[in-house]
TrEMBL record, chain A:
The chain crosses the membrane at residues 6-23, 35-52, 64-95, 107-126, 132-150, 162-184, 204-229, 241-266, 272-291, 298-318, 330-351, 363-385, 405-427, 448-471. The keyword DNA damage does not apply. Its main location: membrane. Keywords: Antiport, Cell membrane, Membrane, Transmembrane, Transmembrane helix, Transport. NCBIfam families: PRK07691.1. This is Na+/H+ antiporter subunit D.
UniProtKB/TrEMBL annotation, chain B:
It is found in: Cell membrane. The chain crosses the membrane at residues 6-21, 28-47, 67-92. It comes from Halobacillus naozhouensis. Keywords: Cell membrane, Membrane, Transmembrane, Transmembrane helix. This is Na(+)/H(+) antiporter subunit C. Belongs to the CPA3 antiporters (TC 2.A.63) subunit C family. It is a multi-pass membrane protein. Its main location: membrane.
Length: 494, 112
């Protein structure tokens, strides 16, 4: 039954190919996409359940034993993230047909969409560092297609920079992988982790570690490598922004989490102190960016950055509590960022502008949207009992246990400022006198777009309220990541 | 032999970075192409260079080169081909719609 673990990669890949044939028959393409997205969610849920019950599933493709062939590793961390990815995908696929124009949909939106999901799930599941690069490329290729979808002036301008930045970091990634191969002579992550302890030239390994961190940090938008993110994430269609904001940066975080708990865990001092400083700067600069603009799409895009800071902080502190905090925050952030970008999409659609100064009194016309936005703000800022609170609580408890007081203060202040930046949208955009709507004819369509967001928000609220159910498995993942020997043994079967 | 290859890869990286830092879009794309060539040479060098030794292990073959770096290069070359052609198309559209191929002028923060 170990072939099961390849399904989260193969199903969306097949879907992407099938949907490409129906580019001009949109109703059919939409129906197929929705059905496949739901099937994929169910299948991933089933695999999650299997792994929860029976332990990790490892697929050695082509029956090549572990250190030689390409392997897929489905442990609790990777499959949980793949499952969350599919939750986001379902919400986005139901939202897409309302938010995109028919022309954009017929330019193979659904194919790119499913290929993106393939790449993201593949990056989570693979156990081979070169394949990590390949799946990064798969998801980046799909994202290049998605970011130019619509062909607008600003979009083309920003996508050019996006492609160049990602191409550069990919090439650095390939070079670093070949470095690593020449030092340890293997590409299997578990095998690398084992060999790394035997290498006597630790200096080279530190260099490789920092280079890998540079690559992943560029994808994850850690300070000072976040400069490309705000403009390119606010340029495309909201559903594309939602996919990017929810999934792409999180793949970077996942890779940092995997590589720095598994491979470079033995010389934690240097790298992890660096992480804590970078986390603090990431939070500060992200929040400053969010407060600096009146464009609500940009405010949202900047808000990705402090969240990345929180997750890096957990990896930097490097205790079981803080790592499980990072994992909890990662799952929470995927769901809530997707919900937020979709919400911003509805607001921009309803108001006809993304300039905050021109939007007033929306709540009189869109009460459901207003309250969804309010709940989402509370979730994002981490007001108990919502899910953001639990993640932050774990992170801060971990930091306090290690006596890293400064980062705790920065984290708490930046949380407050995140709340301020979002509540500003709520106060200016939703409160105020009842005014004439700029586009009253869009009301029905906008209300239809609200429901996929309700789905994501209810998951987010469930994650917070039902923390008692989820916490044990997240805590277990934290423990598991702090003991890389478990991963190595399960892959190499020693 | 490895030294020569390493120097060659270094030259490619240098020219790539020089071209990447230019303003004209086409030069930047040439820079990315050179960068990927440098990376590929690098992978080949890392797998040790040997003369007259095929990357195949069959019966009777005593000396063989490590086949893995060659497989990696193949994957990497395909990817960089794809991205280079995509970049050329993208640059064409961008310069046509924005009316310039100068990266300095492709800035901005306008509301849409």
């Amino acid at each position: 039954m170990s072939n099961l673990i390849s399904l989260p990669i193969i199903l969306p890949l097949l879907a992407g190919i099938i949907v490409a044939f129906f580019a001009n028959k949109l109703p059919l393409a939409r129906a197929i996409s929705k059905v496949i997205a739901l099937t994929n969610l169910a299948v991933t849920g089933f695999i999650l359940y299997r792994i929860y019950q029976n332990g990790p599933i490892i697929l050695e493709t082509g029956d090549w034993a572990a250190p030689y062939g390409i392997i897929l590793v489905g442990d609790m961390l990777s499959i949980t993230l793949a499952f969350t990815t599919n939750l986001v995908a379902v919400a986005c696929v139901f939202y897409a047909s309302k938010s995109l124009t028919e022309q954009q949909e017929s330019y193979y939106f659904y194919s790119f969409f499913f290929l993106l999901i393939t790449g993201v799930s593949g990056a989570f599941i693979t156990g081979d560092i070169f394949n990590l690069f390949v799946f990064f490329e798969v998801l980046l290729m799909a994202s290049y297609g998605l970011i130019v979808l619509g062909n607008g002036r600003a979009q083309l301008r920003e996508s050019m920079k996006y492609v160049l930045i990602n191409l550069f970091s990919s090439m650095v990634f390939v070079t670093t992988v070949s470095f690593l191969y020449s030092v340890v002579g293997t590409l299997n992550m578990a095998h690398i982790a084992e060999r790394v302890q035997e290498v006597d030239q630790q200096g080279i390994l530190t260099t490789i570690g920092i280079l890998l961190f540079f690559v992943f940090a560029t994808k994850a938008a850690v300070f000072p490598l976040y400069y490309w993110l705000p403009n390119s994430y606010s340029a495309p269609n909201p559903v594309v922004s939602a996919l990017f904001g929810a999934l792409l940066t999180k793949v970077g975080i996942y890779s940092i989490l995997r590589v720095f708990t598994l491979i470079f865990a033995w010389e934690a001092d240097l790298t992890h102190t660096l992480f804590i400083y970078l986390a603090a700067f990431t939070m500060i600069f992200g929040v400053i960016g969010a407060l600096s603009t009146n464009n609500i799409k940009l405010i949202m895009a900047y808000n990705i950055i402090p969240a990345v800071g929180f997750m890096i902080m957990g990896i930097g502190i490097f205790t079981e509590t803080s790592i499980s905090g990072t994992v909890y925050y990662l799952i929470h952030d995927m769901v809530i960022k997707a919900a937020f970008f979709l919400l911003i999409g509805v607001i921009v659609y309803a108001a006809g502008t993304s300039d905050l100064r021109k939007i007033k009194g929306l709540i009189h016309h869109y009460p459901v949207l207003g309250w969804f936005f309010f709940i989402a703000t509370l979730v994002l800022a981490g007001i108990p009992p919502f899910s953001g609170f639990i993640g932050k609580l774990l992170l801060i408890r971990g930091a306090l246990a290690q006596e890293e007081i400064l980062i705790v203060i920065v984290a708490l202040i930046s949380s407050l400022l995140i709340l301020f930046s979002m509540i500003r949208i709520f106060i200016q955009g939703f409160w105020g006198e009842k005014t004439q709507l700029a586009h009253p004819e869009r009301k029905q369509a906008a209300n239809k777009m609200t429901w996929p967001i309700g789905f994501l928000l209810s998951i987010s609220v469930l994650l917070g309220v039902g923390a008692e159910w989820f916490y044990p498995s997240v805590e277990w993942i934290g423990e598991y990541l702090m003991n890389p020997q478990i991963y190595i043994d399960s892959v190499l079967k020693e | 032999m490895e030294i020569v290859m390493a120097v060659l890869a270094g030259i490619l990286f240098t020219t790539a970075v020089y071209n990447l830092l230019q303003k004209q879009m086409l030069r930047i794309i040439i820079g990315t192409a050179l960068l990927s060539h440098g990376a590929h040479l690098f992978i080949l060098t890392m797998g040790e260079l040997k003369r007259d030794k095929p990357p195949i292990l069959s019966e009777g073959v005593e000396n063989y080169t490590d086949p893995l770096p060659q497989a990696l290069i193949l994957t990497s070359i395909v990817i960089s081909f794809g991205i280079t052609s995509l970049l050329l198309v993208l640059a064409y559209r961008t310069s046509k719609i924005n009316g310039t191929d100068n990266m300095e002028q492709l800035r901005g923060n306008d509301y849409e």
